[in-house]
Amino acid sequence: MILLLLLSLTATTYVSASVSVCTVTGSTVIAFEQTGDTVPDRCAYTLLTSTTDNFDVVGVFQDRRQVHVSLLDRVIVTHGGATIQLGPGRRVIQDGNDLEISGTLQQNDFTLTKGTTGVHASFSNGGATYKIIFDGFTLHIEVTGTLAADSTGLCQVPTDASANKNSAKSLENCDVSQTATNEVSDDICNTMNTRCDALNNDPFASCTTNKASYIAACKDTMCKYPEKDGFSVCLFKEAYVNVCKMLGTTIPDTWRATASCSAPTTFCQDIKCGDHEFCGENISDEESCLCRSIFATPLRTDQSYGGVTKCEGKSSKLTLVRCLLEEKGIDYTDLQLNKASCKGQLDQDNNVTFSFDNTDTCEASVTDTVDSQAVVITYKNIVQTPAATGDTTRYDPVSIDFSCTYTSQNPAATTFRIMDSSVTKTFSSKSWAYSVTMAAYTNAKRTKSTDSNTEIKLKQTIWMKLEATGLDENLIHLVIDSCTATDGSDNSKTHNLITNGCSSDSTVTIETNGQGTSGLFFFKMFHFVNGAQTVTLDCNLKLCLQNCQPVVSMATRTDLQAVDLQYDSRLLLHPDQE
Predict the structure, then answer these.
(1) What pLDDT does 304 receive?
(2) High-pLDDT (> 70) share of the chain, %
(3) Is the C-alpha dihedral spanning 345, 351, 356, 362 positive or negative?
(4) CA dihedral 253, 257, 262, 264 (to 10 degrees)
(5) In whole angstroms, what is the distance from residue 453 CA to residue 450 CA?
């Protein structure tokens, strides 16, 4: 039993250490031994993990202004079954919610604080205390005590990126290489290199911690990314000074004056950006959510600002990408539709949606056009900046048209039998969809629809109803242009019931036509001499604006192949002849 106990203790031994620091800045991981290497793409990587100490620290890298430059974006820390995310703007997120931190917050096994050096998340386990410090640019993992012997990750071996890629926390296609764009000029790069090399000089020389990795990280980032969005040579000098202090060497604060660096600020404090955004400096040098380059590149080819129009039911919506507007210095709250009170609404993804519907068209223009193929009724509105009221304006001109249409269609001929009771066709226009239903009834109130068991006799009155749903009944009306009966077995045999919107059969009475979104008429049943036992009724419909009782000038039909009125020849016999 003693031997077994000794073996168990040997399995959880720790490697002695006092204070160890791993740093991630830009795309460079500087290990505990102060050697560094860059991550190759925009994926997530395990920085430090231990089964013994039951924790996992993962860094997620993403692009910002340039597609080919990968930068540390957020840090995911798991310990004791709880997970928190340290994000840009010194945000701490758990289960999708931002944690409010004032002073010190104890959250699960984490002790959380916010300070001038960033967000601090601390926890203890085994023989060590771990402090995770992230300011949105640079991450420090400070370990006081002894690291577990089974600790692995890039903080241990920074050159082993492939073995430490965390696919579960990586974004899709994160490892797809990108072509360099908007590279920093050679002159600027040379200047940055000289400023990075200053880490070799006083007052930094007093710290003996390896400087080479910090200088390399500085050069790698600043020769590819502009000195913007909080990135500067001072960022890397700040990182080195902090590491020296953690390891026991304090560099005098006078280094800032010597290096022309100001004290760190809370850049983008608590600003919440979408997954496709990062917090940076807009055209007015204000902190704002800007588009990540890979997301925005295909959307920058025109001036539509990523606009997507959706026509659903009786409403029309245009969604714009807010960060594309920000790139041009456009505040979405300044924009409106034709009606000044119709403003855009910001959603949880930081997209802006403008909308109108049939109850409030926001002064959309409504037009109808006719050609040889179709009648098109179009609702159009414009996302725009307010009209200037004087000689000057501070608005960049914006004018984005979007529209939805109703279009009449000519579907292929279809035969519908009486057993179906009614027939519905859905017409998908360029944007909106509507449906037209034709049904046959045996009573004037149209409560008794026909079916396969309904006996239809010659001269029996059949009440018809054609109704459109999905149209804007305030402006668009349905017109029954014509209805023609065809013999079920011989298409050459036809008989017109309605022509040009008017009755062409003495038994036809048109009750309603062109006054709304439904049409009503009735007629007496018949059959073709020497014809089949079925009669097919085809009605051609069209759309028009406002009250458009026949006859109207819109030439194109919307064909609705309709109800077969089927009868049995035995119905010709009178009961007393059976």
Answers:
(1) 75
(2) 84
(3) positive
(4) -20
(5) 8
